[in-house]
Amino acid sequence: MNNTIIKAFTLVTGLVFFLTGCSAIPDDAVLGNAAQQLKLRSIQSRVYETTDKSSVLRNVISTLQDLDFLIESADLGTGTVSARKFAMKGIGNYSNLKITISVQPKSARTMTVRANAEFNNKLLEDPVPYQNFFTALNKSLFLSGKLVE
Questions:
Q1: Tell me: the pLDDT tens digits for 62-104?
Q2: Per CATH, which fold does 33-146 belong to?
Q3: Which helix (H) or strand (E) holds 85?
Q4: How far from each other are the two terminal CA atoms of the chain, in whole angstroms?
């Protein structure tokens, strides 16, 4: 009798998992609105005419530090830098801004820099912080290319 109960339980459990796994999920629920994603990616990305990934990453790190971010990790191999910025807003209330930058070759002569920011653990879609970062990075890349050390 116990063997029959175990078989029936296993069969019912397997059937439940099978049926719930086959439920249809709309593409928009998983991937979001394609037009919105394209707009966000255009806000988050810039292309620079350079082949020196290392130099771009060093400038990204310097720019983030200039903007009062604390560097959490940096990896030349993957071309990523993660940083965080905290700000107090009254007693016991703070904001948390996390940013991850990736630097990847786009072509033989260009690099794509993409920033992805979260404010209090929610995706930041406001273009102003991205524009501020890229304006500072543009200046840093310009100065590093023009100055002789």
A1: 999 999 999 999 999 999 999 999 877 666 666 789 999 999 9
A2: TATA-Binding Protein (3.30.310)
A3: strand 80-88
A4: 84
